[in-house]
Write a structure and sequence with these properties.
Blueprint (H helix, E strand, L loop, with lengths): L10 H5 L5 E9 L4 E9 L13 E7 L7 E3 L13 E6 L5 E7 L5 E7 L10 E10 L6 E11 L7 E2 L3 E7 L7 E4 L2 E2 L9 E5 L5 H6 E3 L5 E4 L10 E10 L6 E11 L7 E6 L15 E6 L22 E2 L3 E7 L6 E5 L2 E2 L9 E5 L6 E3 L5 E4 L10 E10 L6 E11 L7 E4 L9 E4 L8 E4 L1 E3 L10 E7 L5 E3 L5 E4 L10 E9 L7 E10 L3 H11 L7 H23 L6 H18 L9 H5 L8 E6 L7 E5 L9 E6 L6 E6 L10
Parallel strand pairs: 3-9, 11-18, 22-29, 31-38, 39-42
Antiparallel strand pairs: 1-2, 4-7, 5-8, 6-7, 8-9, 10-13, 12-16, 14-17, 15-16, 17-18, 19-20, 21-24, 23-27, 25-28, 26-27, 28-29, 30-33, 32-36, 34-37, 35-36, 37-38, 39-40, 41-42
Length: 667
């Protein structure tokens, strides 16, 4: 039962850098039958010296390098492990440099020169140092390398990496040429001093250089050899960026590459036959053979698994039963607006999902593979606010199972409509003139600008400002009502004709605006009013001569009526004065301007705005003639009325002659 060594054992040859190093075996013992597993651990002895890649190293260091700068040195290699491996480095005494020994993730050591005192090329052009590598054996073994440092003029700027450490994950079966990471450095110098060359640091192990390749121009680190998770799980790669200056500046970074295990090893079944052949009279329970199953992969890749065939017994399941999507109007066609995510716990085709719209249309479409919902056309909030549809998610089983999801798309408003002026109507040849009497007090509403905005909410809130006026001190406009008021009392010497430009703005972003022009006439005499009314008629109106004769007839009848009333004599004076007082009180009511326009809702519904017309009231005293604008009502004082049209449907001008007494109902 003694286990003997049959040949000379070399731990470095058997296991390399792997520690601990063990050899496993199995022993079968008969009578009684038993199987024993054993392992022999090969212990390391310090039988190898550290070895540097070369006996000399040369460095060029600029005299402008600040204290604290680090310079990696070539690492020595020692095939021994544990305490017998490379443990430390030593540097010969000098006034400028110190040695900093670092430890990698795998426990190996490397050394960096640290500048403690700045160099001066005029004082000393060269330095000679000796680097010694020591292992931990007893006695320790060592190796030496001569370091020649040349002090040269500085490059003003050294390359700088955008990060000091890069991390990447690579699958162990990744083919050669696959990109692992891209390192990036920049140099503020111009010309060759700013051109950067990427390379491996001098202390990068040869094994790493065999497995990875670095593009010196782009900094792309790619797979070069065959990675094996079972051999090495993590690579710590040190790279440098050097410019092309006479004294190149150097920057260093580290790339940590984690190798991800894949199931690239088949289970190995070892059968150890005990009885062969098996006797026909072997008793039940007799051991015939011993089986051992191993897998070099890790975690789940190394477990033995019994497969269970799948049945399509699960319908697709979405994260939500319904979705609400908000889309701005005037969108670009073809944009994705929603991704419907669904899962199916089944396997294979039973878990392969496809997405479809139950209500096919030309506005929306869905990607059958990933459930992305696309908007094919540009939407308009003013045209339609909401869309509803049903999306079906179906698996690939037989028979297939499906789940329906409701989707509602709401179109949100943008400020894409400027205010529209309804009164006075824009872009027409007819000029609307509103009339106000001299002496009208401040605060009197003359007319109103009526406008709507097709947008919604804050985008449709209209404000009105007076942009331009013949006399800015005479009129004002309501900020949110559009009502035009007299800002002060009208005087006899005020300009008779006024043109107001009203600016209408909404409150959207960006602000959209339009303008409306309002004409206001200050009429003192009936002649002036009639002249204005005549000017308001279109030049091409074929009825303008008829209108003129009607006006002339009304004036003549009024004049005759006035003369007849004077012939009544002095005895009617008292009654005439009472009639005048009653007329004045009635006229004060007739001068009232209609209230604010309350038909915006009707306008939005497609109705035209109410008709407006003008009435001119003439008393027996022509100096007291007044002109005002009123909605159409039956005149309580009109003994004679004559109507003329000015060419705009629904806009009327009435001239009413008033006698020295109130007419009776019969009259």
């Amino acid at each position: 039962g003694a286990l003997l060594v049959s040949e000379r054992i070399d731990r470095e040859e058997l296991c390399g850098a792997l520690s601990p190093c063990s050899l496993s075996f199995e022993i079968v013992v008969e009578n009684p039958l038993e199987l024993f597993s054993g392992a022999v651990e090969i212990q390391d002895i310090n039988d190898n010296d550290p070895v540097f890649p070369s006996s000399q190293a040369r460095l060029e260091i600029s005299e402008s390098v600040a204290a604290g700068a680090r310079f990696p040195l070539e690492s020595a290699q020692d095939p021994d492990v544990g305490i017998n491996s490379l443990q430390t480095y030593q540097l010969s005494a000098n006034p400028h440099f110190a040695l900093d020994v670092q430890t990698r993730v795998d426990g190996s050591k490397y050394a960096e020169l640290v500048l403690e005192k700045e160099l001066d090329r005029e004082e000393q052009r060269e330095l000679h140092l000796v680097l010694t590598a020591l292992d931990g054996g007893s006695p320790p073994r060592s190796a030496h390398v001569q370091i020649h440092i040349e002090v040269v003029d500085a490059n003003d700027n050294v390359p700088v990496f955008n990060q000091s450490t890069y991390k990447a994950n690579v699958r162990e079966n990744t083919p050669s040429g696959t990109l692992v990471a891209r390192i990036t450095a920049y140099d503020l110098d111009d010309g060759p001093n700013g051109d950067i060359v990427y390379s491996f640091s001098s202390h990068t192990p040869a094994k790493v250089r065999e497995l990875f390749a670095l593009d010196s121009a782009t900094g792309e680190l790619r797979v070069k050899g065959q990675l094996d998770y079972e051999e090495t799980k993590l690579y710590e790669i040190y790279l440098q960026a050097k410019d092309k200056g006479a004294v190149p500046g150097v920057a260093h970074c580290k790339v940590l590459v984690e190798v991800v295990d894949v199931n690239d090893n088949s289970p190995e079944v070892t059968v150890t036959s005990v009885y062969s052949p098996v006797p026909e009279d072997a008793a039940p329970g007799t051991v015939v053979a011993l089986l051992s199953v191993t897998d070099l992969d890790s975690h789940d890749n190394g477990v033995i698994v019994v497969q269970v065939s799948d049945v399509n017994d699960n319908a697709p399941k979405t994260s939500q039963d319904s979705y609400d999507v908000y889309v701005l109007e005037n969108n670009m066609p073809g944009i994705p607006i929603l991704n419907i995510s669904a899962t199916d716990p089944d396997l294979g085709r039973n878990a392969h999902l496809s997405y479809s719209l139950l209500q096919a249309g030309h506005i929306f479409s869905i990607n059958r593979e990933n459930g992305t919902l696309y908007l094919l056309t540009s939407l308009d909030h003013e045209d339609q606010v909401e869309f509803s549809m049903m999306v079906q998610v179906q698996d690939g089983g037989s028979p297939p199972l499906a789940t329906n999801v409701s989707v509602s798309v709401f179109v949100t408003d943008l400020n894409d409509n400027a205010p529209t002026v309804l009164y006075p109507q824009p872009n027409t040849t007819t000029t609307y003139t509103d009339v106000v009497a001299p002496g009208t007090p401040a605060g009197h509403m003359v007319t109103k600008v009526v406008a709507v905005d097709a947008d919604a909410g804050y985008n449709a809130w209209i404000s009105y400002t007076l942009l331009q006026a013949t006399d800015p001190s005479l009129f004002s406009v309501g900020l949110h009502s559009g009502e035009i008021f007299t800002a002060r009392q009208l005087q006899e010497d005020d300009v008779p004709q006024h043109t107001l430009v009203i600016l209408l703005k909404d409150h959207g972003e960006p602000v959209l605006s339009t303008s409306a022009t309002v004409s206001i006439s200050v009429a003192e005499l009936a002649k002036e009013v009639l002249t204005d009314l005549t000017d308001m008629a279109p030049a091409n109106d074929p009825r303008k001569h008829v209108t003129f004769y009607l006006i002339l007839a009304v004036i003549l009848v009024s004049a005759a009526f006035f003369i007849t009333m004077l012939s009544v004599g002095i005895f009617k004076c008292y009654k005439w004065r009472q009639s005048k007082e009653l007329f004045n009180s009635s006229r004060s009511t007739l001068y009232r301007t209609p209230g604010p326009f309350h038909h915006i809702d009707a306008v939005r519904g497609g109705f035209t705005p109410p008709n407006f017309y003008h009435q001119v009231y003439l008393t027996t005293d022509s100096r007291q003639s007044d002109l005002c604008k009123k909605p159409f009502t039956s005149s309580p004082l009109g003994s004679r009325q004559s109507t003329m049209r000015n060419g705009e449907p629904g806009l009327y001008h009435q001239i009413v002659g008033t006698a020295s007494r109130l007419p009776t109902p019969a009259e």
